Amino acid sequence: MKAADKTLSKRYARAYMGLDGAAFDKHGEAAAELRIAELEKVRSSAGQFVRLFLHPLVGYDDKNEILTRLLSKDVITSRAAALVGLLIRENRFYLLDAVLEDCVKFYNDYAGIALAEVASRHPLSEEELRHIAKILSSASGKKARVAQVASESVIGGMEIRLGDLLIDATVKGRLKKLKNSILKY
After folding, report:
1. CA distance 129 to 155
2. What pLDDT, in 10s, does the model give residues 131-177?
3. Do the beta carbons of residue 158 and residue 118 sit within 8 Å?
4. What whole-number distance in Å separates Cα of residue 159 and Cα of residue 41?
5. Measured between alpha carbons, how far is 53 from 93 in angstroms, rounded to an integer?
6. What are the tens digits of pLDDT across the range 41-77?
7. What's the rounded Cα separation, in Å, for the pair 112 and 25?
8. How far apart are CA 182 and CA 21, in angstroms?
9. Which of 3, 52, 98, 144 is most open to solvent, judged by the fewest CB atoms within 10 Å of its CB?
10. What's the chain's Rg over C-alpha atoms?
């Protein structure tokens, strides 16, 4: 994705979510979760017609009519439908997935949630994942949501990615560290 498209995506998401400068509270959290759910619902409804919405020869009126027919009555009047209509009108429907991603990022920042990814060879138990989440929460000062990924490259141990931070607790990483310390002397 081009840098200009990333900037546009963030602007659309920021305007849609309306969380700038808002203090965290339960009402705002519920409203933000609802906005994300509505946008996901609109995206899934429009999902089978993506090529049509992206096609330059199909006019705005036709695209808008198709979108209107696709959406249920409870969603058609939502802010999500209005945002998707705007993206279609401006020929930027291709930004919808990026806008949704950015909405989730804004919500996580607003709610103080840090997303972590744990890569290990074998699945970890729920207890282990909760323990990792607790440690990451205390270290980052945010609520940690841990997602698990099975990775063939991890022989033993685990890799934990929290934002830009990578914690390498794999056997391969430890051996590499040992090798570097031996070669240093």
Report:
1. 19
2. 999 999 998 889 999 999 988 888 888 999 998 889 998 888 888 88
3. yes
4. 33
5. 7
6. 989 988 888 898 999 899 989 998 888 888 887 788 8
7. 11
8. 51
9. 3
10. 21
Residue 120 CA to residue 153 CA, distance in Å, equals 9
Q: Measure the CA–CA gap between 41 and 119, rounded to whole angstroms.
A: 30
Please give the helix or strand (H or E) that residue 81 lies within, else none: helix 79-89
Mean pLDDT of the chain: 89
Percent of the chain at pLDDT above 70?
98
Contacts for 132 with CB less than 8 Å, ≥ 6 apart: 116, 118, 124, 144, 146, 160
Which of these, 43, 85, 33, 34, lies nearest to 62 by C-alpha position?
85
Type of residue found at 47: G
Cut 0.85: pTM above it: no
Two tokens, residue 82: 């209005």
Q: Which residues contact 101 (CB under 8 A, 6 or more apart)?
A: 9
Question: In the structure encoding, which two tokens stand for residue 115, read together?
Answer: 């997303």
Which CATH code, of 3.40.30, 2.60.40, 3.40.630, 1.10.3470, is assigned to 113-184? 3.40.30
The one-letter amino acid at 105: K
Q: How far is CA 75 from CA 35, 53, 174, in A?
A: 11, 18, 52
